[in-house]
Every structure is written in C-alpha cells, then in structure tokens.
Amino acid sequence: MPPADLVLVVDHQLPTPDRDSGSLRLHRIIEELLALGRQVLFFPENGRAERPYADRLRAAGVGVITDRAQQTRFLSDEGHRVGLALLCRPGPAVQMLARVRDAAPGCLVAYDTVDVHFRRLERQAALAAAQGSADRYVLRARADSMRAVELLLARECDVTLVVSDEERRLLGELVPDAWIEVLSNIHRPARTTLERGSAPRVLFVGNYLHEPNVDAARWLCTEIMPLVWAEMPGATVDLVGDAAPPAVTDLAGDRVTVHGWVPELEPLYRRARVAVAPLRYGAGVKGKVGEAVEYGVPVVGTPIAFEGMGLAAGTDVLAGETAAELAGQLVRLLRDDELAARLVTTAGAGLAARFDARVARTVLDRLLCSAPAGTPFHQDPAHGADSKFLIPTCRTESVSVR
C-alpha cells in the first residue's frame, strides 16, 4: 500500500518559528513532510491566520483552514483522504481526536506531545512545594489532571510522539502497549567557527509565555548573577524573547538588558560569550540549548536544561543545580576561552548525531508508510474563502517553508 498523500496537522496556533522552540520544531517537521512528497493541511485551534506565518505556509503549498465550521465541512467531505493526522499538544489533541476518528476512521492518528506536559507541571508543583508557595496544591492538581489527559491520548491514539528517549521510557512504563516514537527537534550543523564576543556577556533566550522561562530569567538575575558580579562586576546579561511580562521586564538595569522579541538572534549570539539555561523545571528537550550550540556558543545550565539532549556535562556543556554552582560555571567559562572552544566543538558533534534532519525524516517516513493510501485533493469552493488553496498532488521535490 502506498504511503499517505495528505497529512493533517492540528496545533493551538500556526507555527511561529521565530518566536518559540516548539514552533520551530513543527516548522521543520512540515519542511520534512513536504520534502518527502506529502501534502500538508493545517488547522490552527485558535482560528487565526496570523501574518506572515499563514502566508509563508501557503506559499510553500501548505493548506490552512482557520474557520471551525469550514474545518468540520472539510473533514466531512474529504476526511477519508487523510492518511496521517498529527495532533499537537494535549488541548488540541483531545479536542480533535473524536472528530478525526469519525471523519477519517482509517487514518493513522499521532499524538505529538511536544513535551510531556504533566512531567513539566509535576516539577513545577514540586518546586512550589519546596518553596512553600501558596499555589502548590493548585499546581499539583493541574499536574494530576494533565497526566490523566496525556495518558488517555497515549492509549487512544495510534502512535505517540515524544522528543527524547527519557520521555519514551516514561510513557512506555505508564502505557506499556502504546506505540511511542521519538521525533525530536531538528537542528542545523553547528557553526563552530563563530567568533565570540570580547565582553563578558551572558545570553538567555526564551519565550516568556512558557512559565519555566520566566522563573529561569528571574532566578538568573536575582540569585545567580549577583554571585557572578561579586567576581566579575563587568559581566552583563541579555534577556531575549517574546511576551516578556513585568516579572521579567522589571529585571532590567545597568547590567541587565531586556530586549524582548528580536527578528534576528545571530547578532546577540555573536556578542555573547556564554549562553545560559537555568531551568528549574521543564520537560522535553530545550531548543535554547540546541540553538546556542548551532551558533557556536558554549552553554551553562541545569541538568533539566540538558535532559534528553545527549550532551555530557563537563565534556559538551557545563552544568550546575544551585545558584552557586551555576555562577561558578559561568565565571569559569567567561574566563577560559580554550575550554569554551572545546565545549563548542564536542557539543556540535553531539547535536548532529541526535538532531540532524535525517533522523527526523526516518521517523516521519516510518509513520507515513504505516498510514493508509491517500488520493490527490482538488480545490473546492464549497469549503469557503478561507480554504482557497490548491493542495498539490503527491510530489517528490523538496519544498522549503521560508
């Protein structure tokens, strides 16, 4: 049986790859699906076709339907032609699962965790409990509820996608009969020749809609950097990322610059001597770590920051669990150019082994070959103005999402 021709992708919104790591991962997965000759149709749960992101997808041949009624009509009329449904994150997945099962009973349904959410929430609850936070029981309840949803999805979907071997083992123990595949981030080859800045600048990058990044930025500036400044008073911090709340913007000062979202990260990486990832809770793999390695910048972080990356502490990166340990590693790396060069070289090799596009392509090809056959789509005005696109017939040439 030939592989599926149409892949339906559902997420909470269109991917915004210049704003968050999860979007960049999905953006590159879509690139690989197109390169494998598949047709891709995207349903954003929020019903918005944000520019320029919708325009870029459509220009690459990806169909986008935002209106809920038009999505339903499309599934009713054409659902039998969907070979693979990629349902991303727990909320969109649980909302769409029955609709996809009813409209496309023969398709392969994949639940893409993006990260195992309940693991992140459990760690957040544990940190809150250790700090005596007033919301510790609320966070614990959120984690328990999310665990139930995600285990349900792992049982009910045909295949569950995780981003690390650690999370595959975790879900495999909890749902032994589940088919679980690792489909992780896709990173470009590391730029090991990138010149480091001369000033002692520490760079933190993160989307602040993601709560672990807010906590990390605050911990960095209020507890870690004061220890660094005691030894290196000239060191500075650049906080970069979208949607910074007052808890982050209030950190700005003489030695801390809050940049917000920037269209190009390379100038900041060029000036940085060290990238830092002081994450006290989280799950999945951390795009900020892989991105820093891509740019040829050495990384200091917590064990959680490096989880699932296959990067060894002391060989590829420098790690610490407490504020004092992280501060010590930052000072060490800011002062030692030879150590920085060694870390960049070895981390780049480790990144290529696990996160090259070919690794993801192999997993996607296995999913596509497990899905039923699809048939070419046609433009149908009945699906409304929002779906005025022509889904191309199955093709073999590579198409890039710009």
UniProtKB/TrEMBL annotation:
Pfam families assigned to the protein according to its UniProt record, in alphabetical order: Glyco_trans_1_4
Gene Ontology molecular functions:
glycosyltransferase activity
Gene3D superfamilies documented for this protein:
Glycogen Phosphorylase B (3.40.50.2000)
Q: Please state what the protein is called.
A: Uncharacterized protein
